[in-house]
Design goal:
This protein is of the alpha+beta class. It is built from 16 helices and 16 strands.
Amino acid sequence: MASADLMDFDKALELFEPVVGFEVHVELSTQTKMFSSAPNPAAMEAAGVDPNTCLTPLCIGLPGSLPVVNGTAVEYSISLGLALGCDIAPVSRFSRKNYFYPDLGKNYQISQYDEPIAFEGSVAVELDDGSLVDVPIERAHMEEDAGKLTHVGGATGRIQGAEYSLVDYNRAGVPLVEIVTKPIEGLEHRVGELGRAYVSTIRDMVRALGISHARMERGNLRCDANVSLRPRGQKEYGTRTETKNVNSFRSIERAVRYEVQRQAAILAAGGSITQETRHWHEDTGVTSPGRPKSDADDYRYFPEPDLLPVEASSELVESLRAALPEQPVEMRRRLKGNWKFSDVDFQAIVNAGLLPEVHATIEAGVDPAAARKWWMGELSRIANDRGVEPGSLATPEGIKGLQHLIDQGHLNDKLARTVLLAMVDGEGSPEEIVAARGLEVVSDDGALIAAIDEALAADPGVLDKIREGKVQAAGAIIGAVMKAMRGSADAARVRELIIERAHQSS
């Protein structure tokens, strides 16, 4: 792929004003799909469902199959609309969005067009420095997801150049809510940061509502980022591009900044921007052209003839409103105060998208500092090495069990890291791994003393140094003992025994 010319980001913003918008797709975790009784893979905690096993005739568009609205999905959608500060339509309607693609068995998608269930809202988003931005919400509408295509062969993983494509219809019909912002102006250098913070806020919101697992690595939460530039002083918006299905918070920020730089270089050279979808490439940090971006007229929307309008009673709406959880911004500020984290440490957790995991771990009974250490330290490092999200590697209950063994003196830090890696690899609970591998800390003084004596025999001068007040000299013996016992010794107890031995022989 040929690299595009890029303009320096700061220079780009001297010449042009960025205008952004975000379309966030949330897969709802109902037990069945949006319009059929097929099992909903988005509700399953574990990934790895065999392809084309969560199906009914409707999922693959067989003639004669008819849709039936999932009432729970409607309630989840209303709850989300209320959390977004939206008005809820007393009557909303499904439409057919007509287009052909192999992952859409019916050749149309059942969605909502001019009569969405929620509209005209706003979400408070907190940026890295603590400042708040109100993101305007145009609409939140219900629809069904399409299937998943895997393009085999070719250099890009895209359909261009592929030898063949595989279709998995498990995802077809999964309930979705698409949240569409209005154009967002005035963020200047912080447009990418806003995108990251906004999607993170949406994730926290839907998890708090209990309506979605919101795992970006599984596609439960997907973001399309719209970016356009207009010359300084111009009122009309520029031509926008839509970067599809960016799958991490960090990548959202990177993709927005990249499009600003790419579009600025084109416009400054006298070129024009093509209205199109673009694909984000995580490995290279660039976007590439997809297909020309269609307008609404191109989809030939018309009311879905097989479904009645959705009527949301005021009683239902008010009962769901009363059950709303705390707003993400308010929750974050409360938790920061309760946990006594510094601004930097707390914001790092938020930026990493790990607030739900850290919160759940602390709620399970783990000390806040320890919870932060495991998620922001070892688990983030392993996740980065493996190219996955940290939340996919462990559970709050698993971390609780691991920390309990440390607190009880059964594991030291080195052994705990070994146990954690085994947990990530699926070897069982911390207790099971310790028992199977024999990793528990050796606290038997007899075994420790024998190892200490052997180390002192190799370095007899250490005891004299300790007697002279140079207690740090014990470090060499501690290190030798830990090596001899393969890290399973209690280092604190080894130190105590060395000092005792020095005083006994004085």
